[in-house]
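Quick question, first post here. What does this chain look like in 3D?
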Amino acid sequence: MTQPQKTQRRNLLKGAAVAAGAMSAPMIASAQTATFRFQSTWPAKDIFHEYANDFAKKVNDMAGGRLKIEVLPAGSVVPAFQLLDAVNKGTLDGGHGVVAYHYGKNNALALWGSGPAFGMDPNMVLAWHYYGGGKALLEEIYKATNIDVVSFLYGPMPTQPLGWFKKPISKVEDLKGLKYRTVGLAVDVFKELGTAVNPLPGGEIVPALDRGLLDAAEFNNATSDRILGFPDVVKNCMLQSFHQSGEQFEILFNKSKYDALPGELKSIIDYSVQAASSDMSWKAIHRNSQDYIELKTKDKVNFYKTPDSILRAQLDAWDKVTTQKSAENPLFKKVMDSQRVFAQRAGSWQNDYMVDFKMAWNRYFRQPAKKKA
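> Answer (accepted):
Ran it through. Tokens below.
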């Protein structure tokens, strides 16, 4: 290469670098932070609100300053049960809650969380949602109710207790006439069992128990129940129930705000949901098991296993309620049919393949019964 050619090449490269710098300057300037205002449906002190913050932190950390989600506790902008409407209208950019809270829009929405889900555990319900047709059905229901949001489900919740009772119950008849708190389709199930149901949001339950407006109530798990103050007003908790044995969380976005995001930020949200789902599962095992110990030792709570007769009565009531709802609402039936098909296949696999972990746990930790003299 001659000297004039070398000089010409250097000038071309220099010009290209200058041009690239000129082009990148406005691009850098335009990469401003998009701030999304979120609200959870949980009190600030609840671990569920902590889960909402955990998800937001994952998005914020990975977005590198291009997207920031700010999470507010329930009631900061709207009451807990009005979250869906607020996100739909753009009053909020997004939120964190559960699908069952939207039960009043279409009762089929309560099938994402309420009831026995044909024997599926919470993780299997999420598998049905993402790989068995549930996601498309949820979008169909939202469209039918003129709700224009982007929904992500995540976070399989442990089986929820039957609840906190002023007196322990031993038979179905003990439920009759009790003023009881639950939400979603569980409202219909417990009404079928004879209770007078009041579907209060989480932050209002313990005060209602304390004032005698409720005789019994369920919320969710050992950690939430302890933080919300259940053991301060009631000392009896009945464990195991089918009323909400497969629930999960929902992360909502206003569709216009979400659609305006570039593809890479949408991917960050998607993968943050998946990461938060695993993280929430692991944290729940850690925190719930520790708080279960604290409830027994420090708070002196009496725990009882819900009798099988009551569990069977729940299933009977569930079948009656869902048969009626399916006849009244084609979308309800459509969701039930989809769950049934997936549960039959996935449940057969899981029940046949999974070992009984109780056998091993009992071997190492359950003290053998002392023989009578």
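Residues 15-30 have pLDDT under 50 and may be disordered.
The first strand starts at residue 34 and ends at 40.
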